[in-house]
């Protein structure tokens, strides 16, 4: 079967991905958000696109600036955004959910404030709009409609920026979505750490993998490149967690 590499938050650094793609020639690199592209995405990956497809979901930091947003969505690779849909990549059906939960929109465990971007824009007027749609910041917020749009479909793999509940800062709706999609495996970024979720597989009903900061993990769970912070033991108490993680 074709090799897929799942790539943790790059935060503007890409040499390690180019090197890995040149060495291993995977069928696809799948970026798990917080890409913060420093140039149009197709230009960054031009050296390896002859043999490796590039797919992505966005993270919360991909809407930090107009340039970073445009480097993704004005790229010729914009059509390879997996968010909110199921696509066939190298023989696998992959579902994507980019972005993060934000309390202004929806924080699981609390009431939903807005079901979809249209409701949010209608409630806030021009202050909630940018260009021809929702404000730039909230283009990286998860709306209930994003998850609803995936329900009823089937996939082999789910990629998310947020983590499922097996992570100390993960969310049960990610679990529910994975089970509804009947996926066998999930991959997430965002938290910059890689944890062993093997004991959670029976409870979850799927294999979960967190990919660390600039880490690379293959479909079978093999670590191709450790994340830059994989050696750090993060506390589970969010009050003691390092800022920005």
From TrEMBL:
One Pfam family cited in the UniProt record for this chain: Metallophos
Highest taxon of the lineage: Bacteria
Segments forming domain Calcineurin-like phosphoesterase: 4-193
Transmembrane parts of this sequence: none
Protein name per Swiss-Prot or TrEMBL: Calcineurin-like phosphoesterase domain-containing protein
Organism: Undibacterium squillarum
